[in-house]
Amino acid sequence: MEAIILLGGPGAGKGTLADFLKTQKGYLHISTGDMLRAAVKSGSEVGLEAKTCMEAGELVSDALILKIIKNRVAQEPAEAKFMFDGFPRTLEQAEGLHSLFAEIGGTISHVFNLDADRDILIRRLAARRTCRTCGAIYHVINMPPKVEGICDVDGGELYQRPDDSEETILNRLEVYAKQTAPLIGYYRAREIIHDLDAGGSADNTDQQALAIFV
Ligand code: ADP
Fold first, then answer.
1. pLDDT tens for residues 31-77?
2. How many domains is the chain partitioned into structurally?
3. Is 123 a known active-site residue?
4. What is the pLDDT of residue 131?
């Protein structure tokens, strides 16, 4: 079992890069954010537990996240190639993933660190629109859908995530700096991190990532 990790603040473009690498390299896209949003929508127990934290831009508990990751990984065959987007987000989660992979014989081959300035992240998040049904991501100016308010992929309604409101964005950036950014050092020490300049276009980030696989 092999995995790559997309690391970066909210709005850095993890989801957009994930869509590209899924098509180009055949990775399974595992987004804990998407999984949690689906759980909230379905009203499951996981969703009920996660909802309040998500709306406030706080992290959901490590125990809950590790549980959903373990279940998800267990559904795939040994040769699966995972791409984790938005996971791990704390040192505790990174250690949990490490233990899980030690148990099942998994390897983390690359960690992509998507780096962009804070003001770019804030502007991107405020302009982000998400498909209510498939989760596809748009930017009202830089990556608009063909028809305003409608998803190009499945015709679903585009909406602004409640946690993409201005106040919550600032909290999410703070949470990232405090709880997730330490993972950069954690993976740098393991010599599997690749820094990407994620402040430009989506295509620019995609090409930098692709070049690392060659
Ligand atoms: P973004 O990267 O744009 O902030 P995500 O879709 O990855 O958004 O996550 C949305 C929210 O879901 C987070 O703010 C957090 O509340 C929760 N979440 C997602 N992944 C995790 C995780 N690995 N650990 C804890 N909470 C998470």
1. 999 999 999 999 999 999 999 999 999 999 999 999 999 999 999 99
2. 1
3. no
4. 95
Rounded Cα distance between 40 and 48, Å, is 6
Identify whether 70 is a catalytic site residue: no
Provide the CATH number for the domain around residue 201. Answer: 3.40.50.300
Quote the tokens at residue 26.
């055949």
Report if residue 66 sits inside a domain.
yes
CA angle 82, 63, 61 (to 5 degrees): 100
Please work out whether the CB of residue 205 comes within 6 Å of at least one atom of ligand 1.
no
* 187, part of any domain: yes
pLDDT at 167: 87
Query: Which candidate, 45, 186, 49, places its Cα nearest to that of 111?
Result: 186
129 ligand 1 Cβ < 6 A: no
Residues of the chain with pLDDT under 70: none
Residue 205, domain member (yes or no): yes
Ligand 1 atom closest to Cα of residue 57: 14
pLDDT at 166: 87
Q: Domain residues for 61?
A: 2-117+180-212
